[in-house]
Amino acid sequence: MSNIQTLKMDVDSLNAFLQREFPQWTEEHGSRVIATTGDGVVVELPYSDSQLRPGGTLSGPTMMGLADTAMYAAVLSRIGPVALAVTTNLNINFMRKPEPRPLVATCRLLKLGSRLAIGDVALTSQGDTDMVAHAQVTYSIPPQR
């Protein structure tokens, strides 16, 4: 897409930033960026029994957290380490019961402006191509000083 900027943070720098700024998420849940793409990132979340809700499915908050983390990483991959970029909207549709295995979030930036970023996140169970959830996420980018 023409409005998506070039890469400013690679996989290693994104993971180091997330570990430094959000150790509670990366240490407790183990999520990590596994790839950058032409218009976004791919983030993986290891499976844990602590993510289950009654009925044996992964919880909605787990999937929402992964979608949000993927969008944050996608935005930072293009604008650099701006810790105060924040979620302004996250809409998620749960499509099918995820398998009890790692989740993969593939985030695609649709628009990256000076103040807002809009993205699309597809969540799948590792090794499967069928989406378990789909999120649309908007981030606010703080003004440059």
Automatic annotation (TrEMBL):
Record-annotated Thioesterase domain positions: 55-129
A GO MF term: acyl-CoA hydrolase activity
Keywords: Hydrolase
Keyword Hydrolase listed: yes
InterPro entries referenced in this protein's UniProt entry, alphabetically: HotDog_dom_sf (IPR029069), PAAI_dom (IPR003736), Thioestr_dom (IPR006683)
Keyword Hydrolase in record: yes
Gene3D superfamilies: Hotdog Thioesterase
One Pfam entry name: 4HBT
Descriptive protein name: Hotdog fold thioesterase
